[in-house]
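Exercise 7. Predict the joint structure of the components listed below.
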Amino acid sequence: MSAVVDSQILDGHRQRAARRTFVLLAALVMLVVSLLVDVATGPAMLPVTAVARSVFNLAQDRTVDAIVWSIRLPVALMAVVVGMALGLSGAIMQTILNNPLASSYTLGVSAGAGFGAALVIVLGAALPVPEAYAIPVSAFLFAAIACAGVYLIGSVRGATPETLVLAGIALLFLFQALLSLLQFFASQEALQQIVFWLFGSLQKSTWRNLPIVTFVMLATVPLILLDIWRLTAMKLGDARAAGLGVNVRAVRLRAFALISALTGVAVAFVGTIGFVGLVAPHIARMLVGEDQRSFLPASALFGALLLSLASIASKTVMPGTIVPIGIVTSLIGVPFFIWIVLANRRRFW
Amino acid sequence: MSVAATDITVRYGRTIAVDAVSLMAEAGTVTALVGPNGSGKSSLVKALAGVIRFDGKVALPEAQAEGRVIGYMPQDTQSATALTVLETVVLGRLDQLNLRLSDTDVRLAAQALADLGIGHLAARDLGELSGGQRQLVFLAQALSGNPKVLLLDEPISALDIHHQLHVLQNVSQLTRRLGLTTIMVLHDLTAAARHADRVAVMDRGRLAGIGSPTNVLTPALIRAVFQVEATVTRGADDKPIITALACAHGLPSV
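Solution:
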C-alpha cells in the first residue's frame, strides 16, 4: 500500500479521535455550566458567579453557602449522576439489543422499579432495611427482577435481540398492569404517593443517598471497559460478533447486570424518569458515532446534561412550583426525539 | 495444517440442516461450498466457525502468535451502524486491541482495506455504504485478523463482476501466499469451478460430491442436485464454464 494512503488514513483517524475528544470536553463544560445554573435557580435566584465561588470554595457567604450546600447542590448533583446512569444504561441497552428504541423505560425495567416502589407504599415496608430506604430497595430489586425477566424470557429459545425486545415489551405491560392493580386497591393517601413517585422527583436527594448512586455508577465503569470492544463488535449483529470471537450470550448477560444496577439505583431514589435513557444515546450516536469508547461516555454526559437542563426547566416553567422532573423530561424529550429520528432516518437504523 | 471436520450435524429444532458431514481442507487451498438454497452450506460454515451449536468434531490449525485461528465472514445482513469502515475492520483483531488504538492497529486495518482497493472508504460510516462495498469491508475485517482459516459465506453475492473477480483472485492469491485454508460458500458454479481448488456440493444437508471442479461439476451431478440441465465447457484457460439451460423438473425444493 502506498505510504500516502497509509498516512491519510492515519491522519483521518487522528482527526476523528480529536473531534470526539472535543465533543466530550464540550459536553463536560456545558454540564458544569448547567450544574451551576441549576444550583443558582430556585425561589431565591442566586448569581451563577456566587454559586461558582461557593461550590469551588473560593469565598464564603453564609446565606449562599447554606442554600447551595444544604439544599440545592445535592439535588443538582443527583440530576447529573442519575442522568449519567440513565444515559449509560440506555446506551448499553441499545448496543446489546441493536435496537434504537431500547431503553430501561421502554423495555419494562423502570416499570418494574415503579411497581416495586408502589408495592412498598401500599403494603407498607416489610423489608429488613431502614424505612427511608424501603422504597428505593424495593424499586432496585424489582428493576433487577425485570431485567432478569427480560433476559430469561428472551433466552428461552436463544437470546436474539428481537426476542429480548419483545420480552421487554411484554414485561412493560405486565408491570404496568400490576401497578394499576395496586393503584386500584390503594388508599387515597397511598395512591397520591405512588403517583408522585411515578412522576419522578429529584427533591428527595440528600448527601446520604447521592454517594450510593455515584458509587454504583462509578463501579460499573471498569466492568464496562473490560467489554468495550466486544460491545462495539455487537453493533455488527450477533453473527458477526460471534465470528469475531465474542461470546455474545456472556457479554449480553454481563451487560444486563450492569443495566439492572444502573437503572435500579437511578430510579430507586428519584422515581421513573423517561426519555433520558432513550434520547441521550441518540445525541451521542449523532455526534461521536458508535465506537463504544466514545459512545458510552458521551451517552453518560448527554444524559447528565439533559437531566440537569430538565431540572432547571422544572423550576422555571411555572414560577413558584417545581414541576416533577419526569414530566419535564418527557415534554422536552418527545419533540426532541422526533426531530433526531427524522433528521437521521435511514442512516443509523 | 488442514481443517478436518468429522460427522458435523446441525439441528434447528427438529430440522436437520447438516447431516453428519465430514470434510477435509488442506492448507494453501480454496474449497468452494456449493448447493441449492437450504442445502446446509451456511450452517456447515457456521459450525466450522464455531458460532452455532453442532454435533461432531472440528480440528483446526493452531493460531499464530499475533493472529486468529478463524477469519469468518457471515452472509451480508444489514448492518446499519454508526461505526466507520476503519473501526469495523479494526475489530478483526479484537482480541489484540487495547483501550487506545495504536498506530499499528490503524495501519494493519488500513492495509487490509488497501489490499481490497477500498482504502478510500476508511472514514465513511458503514451505514452509508452499498451492499457490495459493505461486503468488501467485512472481507477486509476477516483478513485483518491474520487468520489461518478463512470461512467466507457468499463473499461475492452483492458485488459487480469486476469486484467479484477482484475478490476471488485476491482470496486465491492470499490463500496460496499465506498458506490459508479457505472455505467459501458460492452460488456461481463457474466462479467456484474457476477459483477453487476443490468443490464440495451440498444437497439436503449431505455432501453430494467433493473433489476437483472438473470431476465434481458434471452435467449429471448438476441435474441431480440443482435439477437444472446444464452444459460444462472449457474456457481458453481450460477451466470449466457452466451454463444453466433449463429447469429439469420444475423448481428445486428449498
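Discussion. The mean pLDDT of chain A is 90.
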